[in-house]
Amino acid sequence: MNPEQPDHVQRMLADLDARLGRITAEVAEVRSGLAALGRRTRPVQPTQPVPPGQPTPSVPPGHPAQPAPGATHPDPRPAYAQPSGPGRDSVWRAGAPQAGGPALGGYRPAGPVDGPRPQPGPGPAGPAAPGPAGPGWTRRSAETRPRRAPRLTAATVIAAIGGSVMLAGIAFLLVVAIQAGLFPPIARVVAAAVLALVLVGLGLWLQSRHEATPERPINPGALALVGTGLAAAMLDVIACTTLYQWIPVPAAYMFVGGLALAGMALAQRWSSGLLACLVSAGTMVLAPFISTGVELPVFLVILAIATAVLGAELGIAVRVVWSVFPAPVLVGYLTQTHLHDRGEQVALIVAALVFAAVGVGVAWVDSVRRRPAPENAALVVVPTAVPLLLLSGLFLLRPGWPVGVILAAAYLTVAVVAGRRAHEPGPVLLSAVSGVVGSALLFGAWVELGGREMTSLALTLSATGYVVAAGLWGRRWADWVAGVGAAIALAVYLVVNEPFLALDESLAVRELTYWDVVAALAVTALAVAATWWASRRVPRQASRVVMAGAVAALLAFSVMVVAAGVVIGDLAGAARNGFLVAHLVVTVLWISCAAWLILTPSPRLSDARRMGFVLGSLALAKLLFLDLATLPGLFRVLSFIAVGAVMLAVAVRYRGGTDVGGVQGGGTGESGTDGRGGPYYRRDTEPSGSGSPT
């Protein structure tokens, strides 16, 4: 054993003990600094002004004096604990407020600056508290905090229910008093007006005496009183106009509009959706109990416009009230236009158009202009456009389909313009909603076009346009509209044009007309467009989609050929011969298409040969099960000969190509055609004279 080893171990232990002492000193220094920081973050009492003639209070003993400008403090930490580099003078400085822990008190640390470092002071350590305002700190200002929406409290619910009950009582006063003959008309109107003024004045007085708090900025009772009073005033004006004819109708429209604007302006100032709902919904719900004339929907539209213009930012409930409530009233009156004279019909039409225009305008501003766009703001387009579906059927607008086409074009234009802002969610929703509404208006206009065949053709052409647009544009709503439109157009075509008549000779000769030729050609174009659109949407299944679409297009084109044969034969005085020749042409067409696909496959379609075999099988089935039973003597012979000739030609070409293009031994490099008619090259694989392959 080395005798010097114990001394070496003792020296190592002493060194470790010294390092442990330094670490303990550093920990104590850090704790002292944190305690001092906690004491400095306590709020400082505001300094009271010193009265004249009194000495300035001195600094209490033991409290560190404020440093002079530019003064520095020595760092009390040991030399080995002092950091070096740019992070040495890092302090807490003014910065943006953070949502940090409560110990920070709305402050945040900042980067390094030049200036004195906070020094520890005497006194026990205490919990961290918000620090004083001044250099090195920033306090979260009340103005920078987001304003919270008023919560729905029990007082708000009670106020809303009480205002609704009071408003119903006022409406009953105007209606029941008339039925019972309790008061003369002037007394009823004056009583309602006085009550409305008292309610509004009392509500404003209560709010003026209310001490606003973050939890209760507006007095719920004041909201209920003002909303009830304004709604009562509008109901009183409606009664004076529709029941007693004391106020001219244009003046009544202006009065109601002014009262509605005043109520919405006050609701906007108070940021109260409850007030807006009381004014708007209260009047809209109770107005039908007072008036049933044609002025009622106009009053509701005026009230909806005022609410939409000034109350669009007051919540979803207000948006639902002004957009949904007038729609069923307008629809009901538009369905009864035969009971109204020409002037009243014009008033209803104008009201429906203005209502829809306001819906689109407000949705555009909310979705495109406002940042951020309110959620679901574009949905107001749907209820405001519902009355427009009835305009094309009005007797006053006959023929109504041009009106429907114009309205549909307007909505589709909005959809296209808004759809260009694909990076924003608001315009995307507006584009989808406007596109769906415009499509519904367009299909509704075609229903009013007149004539079953014309309607079917218009629907097919519209569906083709939507399919092409969906393939080019790539919008989900366009895909849905294209799919639904194509399904509707195909269903209408099958019901109206009855393409299955082409299978029966007697029915085809009697029923098929030139409309069937045009309709079948349009369906063929629709099938081609739908095949292209679907192949772009599902590229992995493009081959199968193309096969199915090609078969559908060929079927529609075959119906067109048969209908054209019947029409041409009828013009020549032999419609039956035209039908037989057309079926012969269809059979030859099918087998020729199959031969072309088998022998010359498209490089873009890997399953072309398979599709050729499918078409050939269909052509052979048609020959055996339809032509054999339908075509007489000579036409049957020609059909069988033509199909047989094409199939033999395919067999010869296909088999010869296989023999030539197969991998065979012998011969030098030689070119020819493969089994599918394409080029091939054959390599000499015979062993050479030296015994090695070439």
Map the helices and strands.
Layout (H helix, E strand, L loop, with lengths): L4 H36 L113 H27 L4 H24 L11 H23 L6 H22 L2 H18 L4 H16 L5 H9 L1 H9 L7 H28 L11 H5 L15 H19 L5 H23 L4 H22 L2 H21 L8 H7 L2 H24 L4 H30 L3 H25 L8 H23 L2 H29 L8 E4 L5 E4 L12
Antiparallel strand pairs: 1-2
Helix pairs in contact: 2-3, 2-4, 2-6, 3-4, 4-5, 4-6, 5-6, 5-7, 6-7, 6-8, 7-8, 7-9, 7-10, 10-13, 12-13, 13-14, 13-15, 14-15, 14-17, 16-19, 17-18, 18-19, 19-20, 19-21, 20-21
Name the features:
mainly alpha, 694 residues, single chain, disordered C terminus
Report on the structure:
The chain has 694 residues and is mostly helical. Helices cover 63% and strands 1% of the residues. It is built from 21 helices and two strands. It has a two-stranded antiparallel sheet with strand order 1-2. The longest helix is centred in the first third of the chain and has 36 residues. The two termini are 84 Å apart. The C terminus is likely disordered.
Which strand order does the major sheet show?
1-2
Query: In which range does the helix fraction lie?
Result: 55-70%
| Overall form | flat
β-strand amount: under 5%
Rg (CA only): 44 Å
Low-confidence stretches: 56-149, 655-694
Tell me the total number of β-strands: 2
Structural class: mainly alpha
What is the straight-line distance between the termini? 84 Å
Task: Give the ordered list of helices and strands.
Answer: HHHHHHHHHHHHHHHHHHHHHEE
Total of DSSP H or I helical runs spanning 4+ residues? 21
Q: Roughly what is the average pLDDT, rounded to an integer?
A: 74
> What does the largest sheet look like?
2 strands, antiparallel
